[in-house]
Amino acid sequence: MTLTIGVLWLSDPQNEPSEILPHVYLGDVSHSGQRALLEELGITALLNVSSSCDNHFQASYTYKNVIVSDNMDADLISLFPELIDFIGGCKSVNNYNIVL
């Protein structure tokens, strides 16, 4: 099984997540609620970086929630080690299609 990772944003840049690295997708809040889309892309884990996005399918996917305000003052850089650990952990268990 291949792991694909994704990141969720609150705006909709396009109709489906962009693959930013092999098996790592950048998506938004609308993508996180589309089970058919997640299945089509082989998504198995979701990295939810927001303060208001729900985990729609907790029984079916691995989630990591990082509560961050959507503003210019949000300190995302300090969160990178935690986020990288999650992605690496998913990759190591072959659970590696992720939406960020």
TrEMBL record:
GO terms for cellular component: cytoplasm; nucleus. The keyword Protein biosynthesis does not apply. InterPro entries: Dual-sp_phosphatase_cat-dom (IPR000340), MKP (IPR008343), Prot-tyrosine_phosphatase-like (IPR029021). One of its GO terms (molecular function) is protein tyrosine phosphatase activity. One of its GO terms (biological process) is negative regulation of MAPK cascade. It comes from the Eukaryota. Signal peptide: none annotated. Coiled coil: none annotated. Residues 24-94 form the Dual specificity phosphatase catalytic domain. Keywords: Hydrolase, Protein phosphatase. Its EC number is 3.1.3.48. Belongs to the protein-tyrosine phosphatase family. Non-receptor class dual specificity subfamily. PANTHER family: DUAL SPECIFICITY PROTEIN PHOSPHATASE (PTHR10159), DUAL SPECIFICITY PROTEIN PHOSPHATASE DDB_G0271350-RELATED (PTHR10159:SF530). This is protein-tyrosine-phosphatase. It comes from Elysia marginata.
